[in-house]
């Protein structure tokens, strides 16, 4: 899955959920002053921001395969070492960091076991490696209301239910296969209040991620049916959406 969209478009789409989730990941990985941290699949910087606040820009590195996201992160965090690249081939030496993490990234890795193994390689022995993925299989992701209506209109649409790491126990299995030690899993919940239906709906129209690409493929009539189905389900607003992510951590 490629995310060749503007950083602002992604941030409007997912940042309202990923920023508070990234804060919980920061606390769960026991990130403390003086450490060096790596944000893998940083996007426009939801987790990078928390790391910079906790450690300072000069202690943080970030990497993402999307050129627009790298550009956005560099502009947003001028003191952070932001590079272009993939999780499966990290351009850092062994034991370069005290902690590394991938917030909402594993399910888009071409080879998640290789990606987590690379994160372990660049993390010092005993340091935490962590990751989060929404509960895609259980329908508890932020996009769940839209995917539910999409499936009502087209039952054959796969949605994101089959993506790797998005079902209970899968992240821990990936970490085990990558050779991490002391692997633990937990669920992290985020609740976002949307003031209006339009505020919730509009970010989906910018072709961000699988759901954005699915919407972009609809003709005008199908798009209107989807919009109206979502509006009937959610109401005019305000309304809350609670999303749940699986998180895993293990020691390098």
Give your account of this protein's structure.
Keywords: Methyltransferase, Transferase. There is one protein chain. The chain has 252 residues and is an alpha/beta fold. The protein has 9 helices and 7 strands. A 7-stranded mixed sheet has the order 3-2-1-4-5-7-6. Helix 2 links the parallel strand 1 and strand 2. It starts with 6 loop residues before the first helix and ends with a strand. The model has no long low-confidence stretch (mean pLDDT 94).
Count helical runs. Answer: 9
* Text of the CATH class of the domain at 7-141 and 159-189 and 246-251: Alpha Beta
Major sheet summary line: 7 strands, mixed
C-alpha-based Rg, rounded: 18 Å
Order of helices and strands: HEHEHEEHEHHEHHHE
Determine the mean pLDDT: 94
Tell me the CATH architecture of the domain at 7-141 and 159-189 and 246-251: 3-Layer(aba) Sandwich
Percent of residues in beta strands?
A: 15-25%
The backbone outline, from C-alpha atoms, is globular
CATH-level-4 superfamily name of the domain at 7-141 and 159-189 and 246-251: Vaccinia Virus protein VP39
Please give the number of β-strands: 7
Q: Main sheet: which strands, in order across? A: 3-2-1-4-5-7-6
Structural class call reads alpha/beta
User: In percent, how helical is the residue content?
Assistant: 25-40%
Low-confidence stretches: none
C-alpha end-to-end distance: 27 Å
Q: What name does the CATH topology of the domain at 7-141 and 159-189 and 246-251 carry?
A: Rossmann fold
InterPro entries: Methyltransf_11 (IPR013216), Methyltransf_Superfamily (IPR050508), SAM-dependent_MTases_sf (IPR029063)
GO biological process, one term: methylation
Protein name: Class I SAM-dependent methyltransferase
Keywords: Methyltransferase, Transferase
């Amino acid at each position: 899955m490629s995310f060749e969209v503007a950083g602002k478009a992604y941030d409007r789409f997912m940042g309202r959920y990923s920023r508070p989730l990234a804060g919980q990941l920061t606390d769960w990985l026991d990130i403390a002053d003086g450490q060096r941290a790596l944000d893998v699949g940083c996007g426009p910087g939801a987790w990078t921001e928390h790391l910079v606040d906790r450690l300072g820009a000069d202690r943080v590195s970030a990497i993402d395969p999307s050129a627009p996201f790298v550009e956005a992160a560099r502009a947003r965090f001028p003191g952070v070492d932001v590079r272009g690249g993939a999780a499966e081939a990290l351009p850092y030496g062994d034991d370069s960091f005290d902690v590394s993490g991938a917030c909402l990234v594993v399910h888009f890795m071409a080879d998640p076991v290789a990606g987590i193994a690379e994160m372990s390689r660049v993390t010092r022995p005993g340091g935490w490696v962590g990751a989060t993925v929404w509960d895609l299989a259980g329908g508890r992701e932020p996009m769940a209301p839209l995917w539910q209506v999409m499936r009502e209109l087209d039952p054959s649409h796969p949605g994101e239910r089959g993506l790797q790491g998005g079902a209970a126990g899968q992240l821990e299995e990936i970490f085990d296969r990558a050779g991490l030690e002391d692997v633990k899993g937990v669920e992290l919940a985020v609740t976002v209040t949307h003031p209006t239906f339009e505020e919730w709906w509009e970010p989906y129209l910018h072709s961000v991620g699988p759901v954005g690409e699915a919407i972009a493929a609809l003709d005008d009539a199908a798009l209107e049916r989807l919009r109206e189905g979502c509006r009937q389900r959610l109401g005019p607003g305000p309304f809350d959406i609670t999303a749940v992510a699986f998180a895993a951590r293990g020691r390098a």
